[in-house]
## 1
Amino acid sequence: MPARWEVSEISNMKKEKKAILKNPGEKLLRVTVHPDGDRIGNVQLAGDFFIYPEETILDIESCLAELKPKPRAIIEAVEQVIQHKNIQMVGISPATIAEGVCRAMEEK
Amino acid sequence: MAVASNETWRLIIDTQLPGARNMAIDHAIMKAVADGKALPTLRLYGWDSPTITVGYFQNVEDEVYIDKCRKDGIDVIRRITGGGTVYHDNEVTYSVSIPLASAITYGTILESYQRIGIPIVHALSDFGLHAEYQPINDITVYGKKISGSAQTRKMGTLLQHGTIMVETNIDEMFRYIRVADEKNAGRELAAVKDRVVTMCSLMAPNLRCDHLYQHIAAAVARGFTKEFGITFREESLSQYELELAENYQEKMFSNPDWNLHRKVDAI
């Protein structure tokens, strides 16, 4: 029996939005979001930047899920995780993450 | 000498090996250093066939023409370090695994990139090349990238691996690696290719590059001695490291779940 796509899965696939940015002095950031209503929802951050420890990227991505795409709120949430998890970033910054996520959310 | 460490390190000069093996060995050395079972280690190695590595945070599909890689037998392997996509071909690769307590690692991460990059600059100068460290993680000659590096810090240990392009085929490189417009400010592919350079293209036209590998490896070790006063003891991998490497190779670096999706079962 062929696999069937659930309606919600199709809906989610359609909602994928992306942004790519490279700010001066930083590395390339690719943002993929699957918005949940007016919230950011599921986020994936990819690129040639460095985050230490690497595994904490999951904490950074998940801290954004419930937020609305407001730069100040995103920056504050990321900075909180950075402090809490003792994260160091090279070639990427909370402001760039906020810019990338907001740009992706604005994609039509 | 910026930091007088005067430490004794192990030097491993490996042959050209498969990509998954190379990444597994670097990981195993890092673990052995972390466990106190190995001296701080400088390893120099090559690749037995063209191989692509992608950074920890990259999406393979975004970075490489994966179907073309599969068709042409180019392995695509995810590193445990961040950073960008690298086409490994006719290069010398180095890896440094040292405790974070080492004098070389003090200061910011960016400073440690620079500090570990300087011995590579010294090595290139042994071949008459005037190289410079360019933040974040590049070394350039005449403004063109000749060496890149990536660093991770885990278990109280730093691993930095980096490339020195010796006779890398730049045209082939860009047959497999995707170039994001945003990264290259809309430059044409030819202009992007022109931003990287190999040792052999800069040196005497009649030079036999196939004999350079051992000389470059030795020059890199000398660079660390010159910069940090390191004394090297040339040794092989221990049995502990060989077993770790076998495990990492099988469960991570030969595993599509890791290489394509950054998923790994507990090791």
## 2
Amino acid sequence: MRGRIVIAGIGHTAYGKQPGRSTVSLNLEACRKAIEDAGVGPGEVDSLLVKVPTSKVEMMYGQKLAEAMGLEPRVGGVWDQGGASNISMIAIAAMAIEAGQCDVALVTLADNPRTGTRQAYEKAWGDDAVFGWFSVVASYAMIARRHMHDHGTTEEQLARIAIAARAHGAANADAQLRKPLTMDEYFMSPWVVEPLRRADCCLISDGAAAVVVMSAERARKRGVRAPVPILGFGQGNSSSDVPLRRDLTETKADVSARTAYAMAELGPKDIDVAQIYDCFTITALMTLEAYDLCPRGRSAEFFEEGGFGVDGRLPLNTSGGLLSETGMPGLQLVLEGVRQMRGTSSNQKKGAKTCIVSNQGGIMHTHSTLILGN
Amino acid sequence: MEDAGIETARDAFWRMIGDGRLHFQRCDGCNNAWLPPREDCPSCWSPEWRWEEASGRGKLVSWVVFHTAFHEAFETRLPYNVAVIELEEGPRLISNVVDLPDSGIDVADRPVSLTIETDHGRTLPRFKLA
């Protein structure tokens, strides 16, 4: 299946605040731009896969969106796996197309927690609220602390990831936060839940992103302008809540990556550029390790100063990632992967032939991986 | 308790905490021990299990310090810690460590022991460094 399915078009809304916009309208705008980019009409779309908006979960959301877009998709629905949903839905679309279940799929994501409610990110964790156990950031901090103990991970290592993302975001005209970050500023950033600082945390953003998926053959016949082949994908789910994981520093990101590498017939050394889900800096660091892109606990030595830059050892999150471009849960990273393969990124890695993209959801409960080529 | 007369595993766990005793569940089929309370063994899926009282000894797996209150009830106690505790019998739970030193000291894997406290009108299983 390697290379037989492509991403034919990408689209996104403005990132940041979108007051008064429903997620349906945001999704629709991103989808309209994605099909325009692919050069196909709404009538050709016969599959619609959508991530449920995190801040307001609604039953049958996929059908509600399809109605708003006048679609009666052959394959449709919502995939409830948090941020991992996006790449997983691209994989589902690819497999459905390969199996003859549909021809042109839209995969889309929208949410509006910035002007709406942030409750999903600040909520209590069941009965443990009596201990003060609240929020998403605290669970990631719990993992980060154990990672520091087990692997000697330092705040400087976390800072490097934030600094790289912020530098790339500053050069991206579409980014929500366009302010570079220095090491000194990182250490002045206040604790949110120690050991994570404000600068370790992603943005809260309204917005939407969408991609069009079809076969390479169809893209060729339809004269799609800049199709980007999907070389591999994979998934892995650790599923258990953070306290119950025997090793807090292990997720199933490695399983997901191995599946994707095998399908792509590539290894970590073949990867030119990486878009790694960075809801928190620790997430990106652990994913780089799980993907075998750097040795465990050694990202600082491995990626020396500037190592995550466009001319560095591995250009990372070249659109600014969740820390700087938009805090939306993940599909925007696929869009940046597509731009890198097309050669149109605002932080373009010259001659990049492969891009790996990670998506994850919950507190590293779910994971999916995508490898793009050109 | 919404359905009068039916005590769930979760209700029983907190009722026994209210009596000052920390229990976990142990499977009759495969001997697996676990928390938080649930209806079936998460290892062999057996519905047959029993309560076992914890010794109260355990170790600290990881901890965080909140500098932000996500609920008004915790605003006045910032900064406060939340920890993952592993009981010597194996089950894990979220709790607080009552005598955690200032930030900067690595206390992961340190032994801890149970201390029952009352807070916000509820009896809670907390831990102190052993």
## 3
Amino acid sequence: MILLCGIPSEGPIARAVAAAKQVDIPHLVLNQRQVGEWTLELELDGDLTGLLRGPDGTWDLDRFSGVYVRLAEPRSLPEVGDPPDAGKLARAQALFQALLAWLEVAPCRVANRLGPSASNMSKPYQAQRILACGLRTPPTTITNDPAEVRRFVAEHDQVIYKSISSTRSIVRRLTPSRARDLERVRHLPTQFQALIPGADVRVHVVGESIHATEISSAATDYRYAARDAQDVQMSPSVLPTEIEERCLALSRALELPVCGVDLRRTPDDQWFCFEVNPSPAYSFYEELGGQPISEALVEYLRGESGSTNGDLEDDDGASD
Amino acid sequence: MPYAVLAHRGDTDAKLLAEELERRASAPEVELVWADELLLDSRFTHRVDEAGVETEIACAGRRRLDSHELFGAACRLRHSLPPQFAGAPDTDREYAAMESYALLLSWLTSLDCPLVNPPSPGGLSGPVLGLLEWLALARASGLRSRRLQLAAPGAQPPPAEWQAVTGSLAASSTATFGVPPPEIPGEGQELWLEPVEGPAREALVVGERVFGEVTDEEATACVELARRAACPVLGVHLAAPTADGGETSVFCGAQTLPNLGREGAVAVAELLTGETA
């Protein structure tokens, strides 16, 4: 049996549930919005054992071959209320923390564990891991020195800037008008990157399977294309073998068996990697690109495909 | 600029460590850099590209901390809030802290000199693990782990002598049991721990060396725990389960930023330099 944890109406969970039904994989949906109706009991006495209790039954934790985690922050649950009801919040947080703690040490497949997902907290840290796996990353400088930014801009045709951390930011070009505000970087180091021209390709790694989706959009950051009055189109794509292998190696190295790798293919067929998303909103790509990512996910959790292990953090993919 | 010690103001162990480094011939230059100096009063440039990573840090009134010139470093930073944002609105303060954290993590990771403790994605001065992870690691390392039970509200509690504590299951840099009971009893889940009535002991691991009152067997297990946690400087809390101290000690928690004292500072300086005073 596989366990799917999150909000059932949310795209990635909804698609995973549909796929599990489609391929007839026994599954249990832990609906996080049923605050107070789910509890996790653990006992550590040498070995770790436990029970998951829900509104319709009780399950031994050993029964789960794999767990998909897409938990919302407890305070954001409508059932907790605004302002939050102290008792409901306590119950929601207790379950949230217990689940995450258990999943860090659970022997089953987990997509993904919290610890490895933290690599996404620093883009330049991740860039070092990406480079170590043989993928290229854009030239980057992070600085609070306007002179360094000017030097960097002089070296590269076009430059973008974005957050250093996992905090979501819209990728923007450093235009001449924005460049006039460079003195503001003195307040806090800021990340600047050479703009890499080309087509965005989102790769979803699921265990040992690869699902590449090419994205066509004139927007600098396709995730916000609508805001810039631009369209987005997606289509399935096939990666060169060595790029596939490097994406798989990256997934293994980061201990993120299910992840979204943001690539860009330049007009002269060079491949660059921007970042790895530990909790990809794959449903967006599956819906528009038509690839069976959710099916691969539930098959992975069943334990019949792929290997490795590693979650969290929300972001539906980024490309620059 | 051979050695750097990064710490928050008031960290006396950091001062001791800087003193001990200065006493070593191979470390004639030591910079004890306070977090506020690093985050407020410095010029920071961190370049990442296919040629590698290059970092230049110029703190006002101090030697530069250019990455390729460092011989070794000790990081005792617990957080990364730039002081200039201390009074900013919550969202700005949080953003500044996360951005600074992301930068420091990348810089520290890129250093190819000896560094204690090496950063992890979750922590600048070592791994950030939850209690279950520490307990599992301790057990795998040869220590007896404290028994634990997480019970649903209203569930049958364990034997009366077990201690109820609150949800310290989440990861933190100091994983020690003994948090006060829940503010809203019966609402959250209840965490119970095996009682430990005997004297508590703390072992300090520095590389392959262990300080504190531990048996040879415990020392070996503590070193193995530090190795598995990728945390060469580690405080390990042990306690006897019974008041007479007669049984095998149990592992109660670990600390990635332990108190060093003079003895620990000497050991860390030796670990970084490979040299005695």
